[in-house]
Amino acid sequence: MLRALPAARDQTLEQKRADIEAVASHGLDALGVERHRQELPVAAEWLLVPGREHDMVTVYLHGGGFVVCSVASHRDRAGRIALAAGGDGLIVEYDLAPDHPFPHAIDQAVAVCRTLADEGRPFALAGDSAGGGLVMSTMLALRDAGATLPVAAVAISPWVDLTLSAESLTTRRAIDPFAHLDDLPACVDAYLAGVDPSDPYASPLFADLRGLPPLLVQVGSDETLYDDAERLARRAAEAGVSVELEEWVGMFHTWQAYAGELEAADESLAHAGRFLRRHVATDSVENARS
Predict the structure, then answer these.
(1) Is there a catalytic annotation at residue 261?
(2) How far is CA 35 from the centre of its chain?
(3) How far apart are CA 232 and CA 85, in angstroms?
(4) What pLDDT, in 10s, does the model give residues 69-79?
(5) Which residue from 2, 40, 45 is spatially nearest to 222, judged by alpha carbons?
(6) By CB atoms within 10 Å of each CB, which of 38, 98, 189, 259 scores lowest?
(7) Known catalytic residue: 223?
């Protein structure tokens, strides 16, 4: 099915955005998740489960190469992680490039995190692809500003090297059915607008990762961004970050989009949520002791 879709270079940006919105999932409705919009001060959508007793929020930053996708295209996977994490979900509608280039999306994600921290709500971060890279950049910006960090983070198939130096972009291109849907050089040009792609906020693979919270990195064995994920996990461990790397055998880029249809999608999102739940519990115990 993925291989049958038009290649990214064969569509305009407007066509790609329209096609993505046309197939946006509404599977959360059957899971009892309620939704409502709010400005925080960035547009965002709450994913709420009635009866939840604590204030934990999983903030989700969607993928799409910084140029496509939205709350609608990613709310299903965001909500499933939040359900498994045991709290509320919040998916951010950050502004897209090229109209809003780097570092606009980072600034917006930071603003949402600061708002939650000011309200005294513990939060975690999760995101996929470009959103996984944005998770890392947001944590770096929060750390460097001395602001409150998330209790933990999940980076799914993260795009963290905008210099496009990963060998897997070439060696796995033939086996990743998602590969032709991403025109990564065009996304880099649109997002960075001339900024050096090795800037550590643009490509957090090259950043000093010391002091970041526990991190789960998920990647499919067949995906073109495999090397981004593997190198990120390795560099995080070298920097003293508590990091787990999960390699899902036979999976392609952002397979979690097929939750409810693909068993590995359901399982990986549940794993991500349980990872966050575990670290939220640990953080609560440590705060009580202090």
Answers:
(1) no
(2) 20
(3) 23
(4) 999 999 999 99
(5) 2
(6) 38
(7) yes
Catalytic residue, candidates 223, 268, 271, 279:
223
Q: Could you tell me how far CA 286 lies from the centroid of its own chain?
A: 27
| 290 noted as active-site residue | no
Q: Which of 62, 253, 271, 279 is catalytic?
A: 253
Backbone φ/ψ region at 94: left (φ over 0), alpha (ψ -120 to 50), beta:
beta
Cα-to-chain-centroid distance, residue 142: 16
φ and ψ at 8, to 5 degrees?
Answer: -55, -40
The pLDDT of residue 22 is 75
Task: Choose, from 25, 70, 73, 129, the residue flagged as catalytic.
Answer: 129
- Return the closest-CA partner of residue 63 out of 134, 112, 141, 152: 134
Cis preceding-peptide flag for 98 (omega within 30 of 0)? yes
pTM over cut 0.70:
yes
